[in-house]
Amino acid sequence: MKWIFLFLWHYFLTRRRRRWRDRQSFEAWQERQVLKRLAFVRKRSPFYRELWGGVPLAEWRQFPLINKALMMEHFDTLNTVGISREEALEVALEAERSRNFQPRIGSITVGLSTGTSGNRGLFLVSESEQAAWAGVMLAKVLPEPFWRPQRIAFFLRANSNLYQSVQSGKLQFQYFDLLESIEGHVERLNRYNPGILAAPPSMLRLLALHKQNGLLTICPHTVISVAEVLDPIDADAIVGAFGGRIDQIYQCTEGFLASTCSFGTLHLNEDIVHIGKEYADGDGSGRKFVPVVTDFSRITQPIIRYRLNDVLTEAEGPCPCGSIFTAIEAIEGRCDDIFYLASLEDGRLIPVFPDYWSRAIISASPKILEYRVIQHGEADVELQLLVAPGADQGDIQNRVADAIAELAQKMNCRAPSLAFAGYSAPLRGQKLRRVERRWSVDI
Question: What NCBIfam families does the record point to (predicted)?
Answer without folding.
Answer: aden_form_hyp
